[in-house]
Amino acid sequence: MAAAGSGGSRADNGYGGQQARRRKGPGALATGYLVIYNVVMTAGWLVIAVGLVRAYLAKGSYHSLYYSIEKPLKFFQTGALLEKYLLIAKYLPGIVPSSVVLTAFQVMSRVFLTWAVTHSVKEVQTEDSVLLFVVAWTITEIIRYSFYTFSLLNHLPYLIKWARYTLFIVLYPMGVSGELLTIYAALPYVRQSGLYSISLPNKYNFSFDYYTFLILVMISYIPIFPQLYFHMLHQRRKVLSHTEEHKKSE
After folding, report:
1. More confident site: 71 or 11
2. I want to staple 7 with a disulfide (CB 3.0 to 4.6 A). Which of 50, 76, 77, 136 is the partner?
3. What does the UniProt entry say about where the protein is found (predicted)?
4. Do residues 66 and 134 lie in contact, with contact meaning Cβ atoms separated by under 8 Å?
5. Residues near 188 by Cβ (< 8 Å), separated by ≥ 6?
6. 154, exposed or middle or buried, with CB in 10 Å at 0-12, 13-18, 19+?
7. CB 130 within 8 A of CB 66
């Protein structure tokens, strides 16, 4: 999710943290690979942020800024699928103390929003709601991948840790709102065009209504977003209170 997003943003699957340290982490080679991956992803989302700012300054308007960052957004958001493999399938037992289901939902929901909604329904690309989740994702991912990088290097600045466990309070609802509004804006065009829908009769004796599917996706945010949000609030209390106690003991 986007946020769940989106901004919104992903359930806490930081490489640092007390629980992670008690587990066996990745070896030196895997750590090096993960550092490179996270540095590249941080740089990629910085490119998107710079692209948004430059386009805004050039146009003097925030409308339709999506086109200025469309290609890097697709590339680096889809790159999160590699992260899904690295974290969930390969290294989760050793370094990631978060829910597999929640993490997978966030990764897949953002890729879904990028390709199956925003890319596929051209009419919504000018909607302000797209910019809403893109900005939320961008800030979230710059912070998150920086957090991962410094955690892997065992040199995590407090400011990045604080931002990781604080700014989501605003960015998660912002991203989710943008995602839901964008899906909602796409519904009339999907219904009119029959996009991705399969009607009977056909040789497979199977039907699929993409319009209904999008409505079900929107409904799925109701049980899942609160879990993500309260999970992060719990992590915030645990991580930042632990940091404060550690400072006082020094």
Report:
1. 71
2. 136
3. Endoplasmic reticulum membrane; Membrane
4. yes
5. none
6. exposed
7. yes
